[in-house]
Design a protein that fits this description.
408 residues; seven-stranded mixed beta sheet; 55% helix; 9 strands; alpha/beta; two-stranded antiparallel sheet
Length: 408
């Protein structure tokens, strides 16, 4: 691997007892390289210790390993990239010298007290998605060429980063090699903390390899989990399915006018399909209009973390805290959506809007229903003519409510 300057990128969270020694070893092994630490919301002295040890620290909110690496990689100079964990020990120079687009370290001295479930699932996922069998699918010690960086970044969220990265590199036809090296790191034990860590790891890699993925406004690659709302609330499952189709196959069109000009798009499917489904469901033209507008409004708001969920919960509160199963799933998703660990996508935002629409049809009639339709139509037209995000961010009260619970 010889394509230009080397940057060493270290993922770290609450590692102040080890990060200093790790950086010292890395600077000694790679004297011409810049060492960058992606500090994933550490609550101890990790950033301070890393800075004193000579690293450039990119301080980030606590979102997850993959998110931290994605955002910090943008701060790195073009060229080769060495990824490593904050607690790694041993000589990584053979990894950088390997002739490969993606070189992955295999530990000769395996450590860790797990049962091997996460590693087995990761290995099976790579084999299923790429046809390649890997010895060490979860190794965080990886050397990437520039073409590999361009191919795999932004990486998957959380601990799904390594598994998804390998799948992406193999499927792109890059040269991927594993090298056995005499390395060590601090493994997790068979205690509650260790099992919780491996549980998060397993959940992240399943989401990274099995759930649809999309990029949020910050460019982070996140799993789309909104289709789960159609499972929890079967009455809006068709809306979730239509939204999921838009998540998977949508183009660059935005807004009613662009979709109508483009003809047969997944956005047009939503524009026509959701009101037709609502007409069948409510047996009412005004009901169909209300449900369609509600679904579109929540979708328009889902451009920043937590915004659509806040709007849904506010609307549900005004409707007597119904339906409770939808409220429960919204509350459960809220912390993960706010912290940019998952996204609702069109499947989730359209489905939640349809939930509010159906409940409004059930509870409101006459002038009250017409007033709600008018309000939703106004928001829709406003969103067609200007950015709702800009309007929210320029309105003090809305800006404060919108930012509530969100880490920036």
């Amino acid at each position: 691997m010889s394509d230009g300057r080397l940057t060493v990128l270290v993922a770290a969270r609450d590692e102040d007892e080890r990060i200093g020694a790790t950086i010292a070893r890395l600077r000694e092994a790679f004297p011409g390289a810049e060492v960058v630490v992606a500090d994933d919301g550490s609550r101890d002295g990790t950033a301070r210790v890393a800075g004193r040890a000579g690293a450039r620290v990119v301080r980030l909110p606590r979102r997850g390993k993959g998110q931290a690496l994605t955002l910090a990689e943008r701060e790195c100079a073009p060229g080769r990239l060495l990824l490593c964990d904050a607690d790694v020990t041993g000589d990584l120079r053979p990894l950088v010298a390997a002739v490969a687009d993606l070189a992955i370290a295999v530990f000769t001295r395996p450590s860790g007290g797990g049962l091997g479930l996460a590693k087995s699932v990761a290995r099976a996922s790579i084999r299923r998605r790429s046809g390649r069998t890997m010895r060490e699918p979860l190794s965080g010690q990886r050397a990437l060429s520039q073409i590999a960086r361009d191919t795999v970044f932004p990486v998957a969220a959380g601990f799904g980063v390594e598994t998804s990265m390998t799948i992406g590199a193999v499927r792109a036809g890059l040269l991927v090699r594993e090298l056995e090296l005499d390395l060590g790191h601090l493994g997790t034990g068979r205690d509650l903390r260790g099992f919780l860590h491996r549980g998060r790891q397993l959940c992240d890699l399943l989401l990274a390899t099995s759930a649809p993925q999309a990029h949020n406004f910050r460019g982070l690659r996140l799993p789309l989990v909104g289709a789960a709302i159609g499972v929890v609330v079967p009455s809006v499952a068709p809306v979730a399915a239509i939204g999921l189709a838009d998540d998977l196959w949508s183009g660059s069109e935005r807004g009613f006018r662009e979709h109508l000009r483009s003809g047969a798009t997944t956005g047009t499917l939503k524009l026509v399909g959701i009101p037709l489904w609502a007409l069948w469901r409510t047996r009412s033209l005004s009901g169909a209009v209300l449900v369609g507008l509600a679904a579109n409004t929540l979708n328009q708001l889902d451009t920043r973390p937590g915004r659509a969920l806040k709007a849904f919960l506010l609307g549900a509160a005004l409707l007597g805290a119904r339906p409770r199963n939808a409220i429960l799933v919204a509350v459960l998703l809220a912390p993960y959506d706010h912290r940019e660990m998952v996204m609702l996508g069109d499947a989730g935002s359209n489905a939640l809007g349809a939930v509010l629409g159906l409940e409004s049809v059930r509870r409101l009639s006459g002038l009250r229903r017409a007033s709600v339709i008018g309000a939703l139509a106004t928001v829709t037209l406003l969103g067609e003519r200007r950015s709702l995000s800009t309007w929210i961010e320029r309105t003090p009260g809305l800006r404060s409510l919108d930012a509530l619970g969100r880490e920036t």
